[in-house]
Amino acid sequence: MSSPAKPCGGPTIEQLERELDRVRSRKRFGKALRNTLVVLTLIAVVTAAVVFAAPVLRIHGSSMDPTLQEGDLLVALRWMPCENGDIAAFSHGDSVLVKRIIASAGDVVDIQADGTVLVNGVVLEERYAVEKGGGELDIELPFQVPPDSWFVMGDNRSVSVDSRCTVVGCLSREQLIGRVVLRVWPLNRVALLCDGRDVGEENE
Q: What pLDDT, on the 0 to 100 scale, is given for residue 1?
């Protein structure tokens, strides 16, 4: 006759506590991982939104001297409307150009021999412009700006290639990247850029 089976010994309290700690650690790790993924996703979304809505651009060349200089870092806002006097960033082929809006759709632009610019028969007061004479000009004057477009020129007229030249032409809405509103670098030249006037010039 066989002897009765003995009950198996259950896990000790220490073993139960260790297992409970492992479960808790696993849960904590999973929660931390989920939180990290959420934060990284939010950062990526915010970064993409900022880059899309407010691209940062670097100036190359001297066509916008003295307002903008080689190496300046600029912030452009895509959603801000562009008006005469504003600085606009736009795509041209594989390049990004930064020029000042001189005239809008329907305006008539004329340029005198000394570089003086008239819009709708009125002489522009261009405190920002230097070396008004010179620069490439092969359009027929007076010139009427086409619909949904802007006539743009560099502040340093003698070296700027802009809407005076058919190679660049007028800026169309499809080309527009955004209105340049802020210079963020170098630090000693941080300034708002608005209404045809560099408000940071007073502090230089």
A: 53
